[in-house]
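# step 3/5: fold
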Amino acid sequence: MPLTFDDLLARARSLPTGGRRAILGIAGSPGAGKSTLAEHLVRELNKAGEPWVAHVPMDGFHLADAELDRLGRRERKGAPDTFDAAGYAALLLRLREEGDGDTVYAPGFERVLEQPLAQAVPVPPSARLVVTEGNYLLLETGAWTRVRARLDEVWFCEPAETERVRRLVARHQRFGKSHEDAVAWALGTDQRNAGLVAATRDRADLVVREGAMPAFRSLG
């Protein structure tokens, strides 16, 4: 039978065992729906009682535009070397090791500004499951190799390619790009990054297609 969203909820709910905190990673190419899936999971799992699931996006580890300019990488923003991969891996380790300690603060990302926001995401000790999502959770180069070992499971979002690109163009337009610039970025920089991400698909524990992501059915 095809995988359903209820199946995903049950699988995520079962990850924390023995009183320890678990970390679920959601990977996929730009526009694949990683954030939407993570947000739905967190909302549904937290519906009853005290919230016990936190959402920590990888996007908070984007290098700031000023640093990308210094490095000469601004035009490749979103590529693996435009993130602080070592910092992200270190945060995942801290989240795992400090599950019963103090609140851990993670950086967030402001889509309108296209900039990271320091310490914007609190993860309280009550969070027994952390859902993190990003393009490069399964990449096997540089500091990204440390990420996979710190995740209990990684799911790979795989919508239809035409739908992924359509959503990506719409997102770029929503946050200020003209239609022409949005298409150029989606089919240029984003597409090169998508190729890198797609090559990591086989390292995931689970491939999630659109049928298991009910929110996408209403996205015209």
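# step 4/5: annotate
The helical segments are 5-13, 34-45, 65-71, 85-97, 145-148, 161-174, 179-187, 189-198.
# step 5/5: archive (pending)
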